[in-house]
Design a protein that fits this description.
By secondary structure, this protein is mainly α. The chain has helices spanning about 1-15, 30-55, 60-90, 95-120, 125-150.
Length: about 150
């Protein structure tokens, strides 16, 4: 179900961006919207390439798989950092403080879930892989959740 949702979101972003032009004003909501769509599309494409490599390259060693899982996580984590910074600028002081508290809670929850995912492998060579996969999943979800703030 999540895969279908991901593809539907990608299609929506692609269709909505076709034939559109950005305004030249960097402060405009229109440019931020298209910039966000472009960054989401780029992150989806980059992570899809890596996901495909994990799924199809049987020559990968565990260390390679761990590295790729981490790269996928980093793609989404960097985009999450961008979203958070943009939201801080775009909101009033109370909204910024509320978002900061919400983000701290989310980080604590994410870290707990990542530890649980890695703990299944009891410190074995797959623990980093499982942890980064969980971190990437949760971070990607959070990126799309924060993207919803821009739609408001």
């Amino acid at each position: 179900m999540k895969k279908y949702l991901k593809y539907i979101l990608i299609m929506i972003f692609c269709i909505s961006g076709c034939g559109s032009t950005k305004e030249q004003n960097p402060d405009s909501e229109v440019e931020n919207k298209y910039d966000l769509e472009g960054k989401l599309k780029k992150a989806e494409e980059e992570s899809a390439v890596l996901e495909n490599k994990l799924a199809t390259d049987s020559s990968l060693k565990q260390m390679d798989m761990n590295q790729i899982a981490n790269e996928i996580y980093v793609i989404w984590d960097e985009l999450l950092d961008d979203r958070g910074e943009e939201l801080k600028v775009a909101r009033d002081e109370k909204a910024k403080n509320d978002l900061l508290a919400e983000q701290r809670d989310w980080i604590a929850d994410k870290e707990e879930q990542v530890k649980e995912a890695a703990a299944v492998f009891e410190g074995g060579s797959m623990a980093p892989f499982a942890g980064d996969r969980k971190a990437a999943e949760l971070t990607k979800e959070r990126v799309y959740e924060l993207a919803g703030y821009f739609a408001e």
